[in-house]
Amino acid sequence: MFPNQFDYHRPESVEAAVSLLAADPDAKLLAGGHSLLPAMKLRLASPSTLVDLGGIGGLVGIDASGKITIGAMTTYAMLRDSRELSRVLPMLTEAADNVGDPAVQSRGTLGGALAHSDPAADFTAIFLALNGSVDVTGSQGSRTIAADDFFVDLFTTALQPEEIITSISFQAPAPGTGAAYEKFRHPASGYAVVGVAAAVGGGSGAPVDWARIAVTGATSKATRATNAELAIVGKNLDADSISAAAAVAGDGLEINGDHFASEDYRRHIVGVLTGRALTRAAASR
Amino acid sequence: MATTIEAPEKLVGKPVRRREDPKLMTGSGNFLDDIRLPGMCYAAVLRSPVAHAKIRGINTSRAKAMPGVIGVFTGEDLADVNPLPCAWQAAGVDNNVATPRLLALGEVRQVGDPVAVVVAESVYQANDALEAIEVDFDELPAVVDSREAVKPGAPQLHENAPNNIVMHWTCGTDAETVDRALAEAEVRVSQSLYNQRLIPTAMEPRGSIGNYDPSTDEYTLWATSQAPHVHKLVVAAFVLGIPEQKIRVIAPDVGGGFGSKIFVYFDMPLVLWLSKQLGRPVKFFEDRTENYLHTTHGRDHHTDIEIGATKDGKITALKVSTLANLGAYLSTVAPGIPTTLYGRMVAGCYKIPNIHVDVKGVYTNTAMVDAYRGAGRPEATFVVERTCELVADATGIDPAEVRRRNFIQPEDFPYDTGLGMLPYDSGNYAPALDKALEHVGYTDLLQEQATRRANGSSKLLGIGLSSYVEVCGIAPSKWIGLSGEGWGAGLWESAEVRVYLTGKVSVTTGSLPHGQGHETTFAQLVSDQLGIPYDDIEIEHSDTKGTPFGFGSYGSRSLAVGGTAIYKSVQKVVEKAKLLAAHMLEAAPEDIVYENGKAWVKGSPDAVKTIQDIALQAHIAYDLPPGMEPGLEAVTYYDPPNCTFPFGTHVCVVELDRDTGQVEIVKYVAVDDVGNVINPMIVDGQLHGGIAQGIAQALYEGAVYADNGELVTATMNDYAIPKASMLPTYELDRTVTTTTVNPMGAKGAGEAGTIASTPAVANAVVDALSHLGVKHLDMPYTPERVWRAMHVQSATA
Fold this sequence. Notes:
The complex is a heterodimer.
Chain A (H helix, E strand, L loop, with lengths): L6 E3 L4 H10 L3 E4 L5 H6 L7 E4 L9 E2 L4 E4 L4 H6 L1 H6 L1 H8 L4 H6 L2 H7 L6 H7 L3 E6 L2 E6 H4 E3 L2 E2 L6 E7 L7 E8 L6 E10 L8 E7 L6 E2 L1 H7 L6 H10 L14 H21 L2
Parallel strand pairs in A: 1-3, 2-3
Antiparallel strand pairs in A: 4-5, 5-10, 6-7, 6-10, 8-9, 11-12, 12-13, 13-14
Chain B lengths: L20 H5 L15 E7 L5 E7 L1 H4 L4 E6 L32 E2 L5 E7 L2 H8 L3 E6 L6 H4 L15 E8 L2 H10 L2 E12 L8 E7 L4 E6 L4 H13 L6 E4 L16 H12 L3 E4 L2 H7 L3 E12 L5 E13 L26 E10 L13 H19 L3 H8 L22 H12 L1 H13 L4 E11 L7 H4 L12 E7 L5 E5 L8 H13 L6 E4 L17 H27 L7 E4 L2 E4 L2 E7 H10 L12 E6 L8 E11 L5 E11 L6 H20 L30 E5 L17 H18 L13 H14 L1
Helix pairs in contact in B: 9-10, 9-18, 14-15, 15-16, 17-18
């Protein structure tokens, strides 16, 4: 539990942080630290430089007046406690309350979670289901990356080595949109053994005109359950259509297995949680 | 002097708040890793990454040249230091003892085996240098499962233990008689059970600090210890060969142990040896993964049972055959757990005429297994409580009724189970069962279960009972010290009670807290007995310097044995106080009455001498009766005449999610009989913690080794210790059947919860699945395991 030696910087601007990243190819950004610091203590990660984003102003905050914009260093606790957010998109506040435990919620950040792309993180699937985007700044300037383009592989995203997420955005949900996140927690880690985030459009009583269903925990990166999406679009959200979508949710996904939950079981749970998430999403429309 | 002091309030039986808590809860505790001695340096240990290998060579030269490194040592440097002893050599062990050396010499036998130690100026430098040590391992095949380890051709761990068998031990009726009884039984059931391996997971891991003072030739060891006096003896006399008067062992605040801190570990003698080599204090403190890899584990029994019963549910025969996985070496008391504390307790609270128990201890390439909260009794209770359920299932008789029909009856006590355990001194099992069933609403629950099954509810309901008896307050020395039975030494306990000139009191005890609340409970006891205010009494413990030898805290023995030693010392002090009061009041000693801290002559209650008056007189000593020595203190070495046998019934109600297999405990009722209670809040706390740990075994915990010997659950990210939010509310009640084994009528409560709760949950989960044809399911009841049980049974139904 004793990390290798490293240099520590706490810059006060995004530009300064980008320069520090550029100066050392083995540098790592430190946000909440709940993934990085344990890895360093186990010497699974040994960055030579830590660039702490905690000193940069303007990376924290929630604006839900129109488009929802959340600063990259906004913690889960801030999401959880945001009344504004709970009015506009309650799925986000509920899901934040379902991450880890209060200590994790107080330190862990939304930007950190997305950039890390842990295969069992919660907000990766939520980000994907809500079709969010991230604004990033790097040595080549700033750009926006859409959710569908963001997750590349296990712990790998479309971020370039010198890029920093500055904010995360979601479109304000159109009237008639329903969304819910269902999670099967690992009893030890609190991570998602399986998590399913579902968002559907169309309004109460009307057929589903679009659906985005994303899976975490069971797959090497947050992944859309396209078969379930196809199965539900155009249907009325009722018990039959939901169970038909749930039945195919795991089809075509590459599912992980371990001693706690096998591949077959996780595939089954993807279906169960897809059904539950769609049921709650339907009720929230 | 102050003769107006009022008698203090009686405290025994009251929920006095723990006096330990303000310090511990405000971060003012002094745990091992808080200790910084001047000049202290830090040890880090290179652990074997492989489960079984010959060590062909170790190159430490690069590590020795690293910044801050003071010394690097390997097993070769310690070749003339004795290995750790195994103290409890149950019958059959003596030729097969293989205990760990301080650092591996020539061979490693488990992942985590210590291979080399670096001492450096900082703990960071020590850990950096570990990465520079090169070890040439010649890997050997490994075996982790006790069933595989005893097969011909399995990898062999120790030359002196063919087929990896540590010992072969039996108890009870001879096997042939039991086989006949089984053959003649109207109902026969057999079942294989796995009581899985657990990792104790105290909140504080283990560590030690050694300091050698060359000017006095004295050694001081600070250790995370449940038994500092025993550690002093073993480290001095058995490992390092230090004169016993030259070593002092101090256990600072200890953050839990659950048994894992009873034992002698390599680092205790190692830090003393290093300190002498290097002339500086040396600290070693393991991290959580080292703790998981190499501090002892618990349980890991593979057991086959064969049951014979009558059609009306009377158990007529029970044959139990167990492979106890003891890990790569023998830990300090490992052989005693699956024998004396398991085999001799498998009758539980039932009158079973023909029991035969056969236990083989087995070496495997895994962490050593030794006592873990309950130590043998949880495994025994699991066997007999699953037996009751299997009999209920086979006969169609209600599980509560099966228990009632087999209970040892009140008039049977003292009761000898025939398994070589000391006789159960007292018990009355049916009232606890009845009370628990009433609390939980058993009849209504059975109705509810039938309804849900009929209408195909998405939540399966299960009700599980567990009636248990356990053995506490260990133990009479003439029994536990017997060669081939016990651990070759006594298990008495000591106490010194000293009343100072000012009337304040110090009590020293050989037992010590690592979370239990000794300082509170013992002070309540002394305050009531002596009539001195609670706040005037200090309970001293955990330092061997100047205190009488004691055996430590485990086996739920602190109150029943250590508390009795205190009780008897108080009695001796009172006797002397009465003699002195008689002198002061110019009366005959036999005419003195002593109550609530005051002495007076029978019939003259107006002229009193308080204990404070008497203590002053005893110390200024200018007017003592002829022949009386000054001072007011007494020492007792108390050897109990028997163990105590707490019992009770727990009922667990579970709901199983049909879709996911997730188990939720919706109600938990515990009725325990721990005898008289000194502090009901502390007893309830012990039960809460114990039940939590037992539930954890049933639902969450389980050490998993890969076939190559790698510990898959080596961090708390993988090994599931339940959070408070994952546990139910407990509804507790008691019956009180007093014991005459000790004058307080107290039995012990530290392990009862753990012993009772695991089978209660197991029986509930299997009950929820029983209509699907499930007879048994191994723990832990992970969602997938439960889901598969539902799925497979439904598919074949």
